[in-house]
Design brief:
The protein has eight helices and five strands. It is α/β, with parallel strands linked by helices and 277 residues long. It has a domain at 98-269: Rossmann fold, CATH 3.40.50. Helix 2 crosses helix 8 (256-272) and helix 6 (210-218) packs antiparallel against helix 7 (228-238). It is globular. The two termini are 23 Å apart.
Length: 277
């Protein structure tokens, strides 16, 4: 569960992403054709800008590759994935990044984890709340009052999740993230995730009825359980996604397996015809 699932939301006019956090660009320079080999540099000359140890020098007119300490390729050994194939139609073996949006009690975390497990290809689930709760000493619990510290920790958790997602994608592993993103804060919500993960991010809204999210929230414990008033307020703001052009799944009558299957079908359609957002 995410921003709303684990804690009350900041007011609509709060900035949720802050400065920076733009997605790092990772150009892939193309080597020159065999007929036009690069001239050899003098033995004593320093390496040309953009060289990567053991890599390929940038082609003239192309930007240099990123330094080694940024998101990049990590050689992974081949592995078998003995998991049940997804129902058809579906996303198949596509490598993709998904953002599952929804209010507290929508089932985002449960559905995201289930969808990731049932795919035929490597897929990671990145939970915003789990990353936020990595902070053990000095954890800013928004239920004790929303302030600059809780806002900063959410912002840091989002950036961390975005960086992790880019690393997974750079190595051919799909990922699904879940967060409560409000339609009245598109720049700091969807815009922030798009900057952190990349323009190919596929957002999907999970929005069951209010009575359903109230029931599910009542089953929660700890700092992830909200008051009924907070849940109703969050759910009401989420209704603004209707008419936005983003795909919306009402899973009021679906179990987890059915919701994951419908999600896969919705994502397949988004791959064929990406939503405008």
């Amino acid at each position: 569960m995410q921003h709303a699932v684990g804690a009350p939301m900041p007011p609509p006019d709060n900035a949720g992403w802050g400065q920076g956090g733009h997605q790092a660009q990772h150009p892939h320079p193309v080597p020159p054709p065999p007929s036009a080999p690069l001239p050899a540099a003098p033995h004593s000359a320093p390496p040309a800008p953009g060289w990567v140890a053991g890599g390929i020098p940038p082609h003239p007119g192309q930007p240099a590759p990123p330094p080694r300490d940024t998101t990049g390729h990590v050689q992974l050994p081949p592995m078998a994935m003995p998991v049940p194939p997804p129902a058809e139609p579906g996303t198949g073996t596509a490598t993709l990044a998904v953002l599952l949006i929804g209010p507290a009690g929508a089932g985002k975390t449960t559905v995201a984890r289930h969808w990731a497990k049932r795919r035929r290809v490597p897929t990671a689930h990145i939970s915003l709340d789990d990353v936020r709760e990595w902070v053990c000493s000095g954890f800013a619990d928004p239920q004790s009052g929303w302030n600059e510290h809780s806002e900063a920790q959410y912002r840091l958790a989002r950036r961390t999740c975005g960086f992790a997602a880019r690393n997974f994608l750079a190595n051919g592993i799909s990922c699904i993230l879940d967060d409560a993103v409000f339609p009245d804060r598109p720049v700091v919500g969807l815009g922030g995730w798009k900057r952190h993960v990349g323009p190919g991010l596929l957002p999907v809204v999970l929005l069951p009825g209010l009575e359903i999210v109230l029931e599910r929230n009542a089953e929660r414990s700890g700092n992830r359980r909200l008051s009924d008033e907070e849940v109703a307020s969050i759910h009401g703001r989420m209704a603004g996604w209707y008419g936005s052009g983003l795909p919306i799944i009402d899973n009021s009558t679906y179990d987890v397996e059915t919701t994951a299957r419908v999600l896969d079908e919705v994502l397949a359609r988004s791959l064929a015809s990406p939503p405008s957002w």
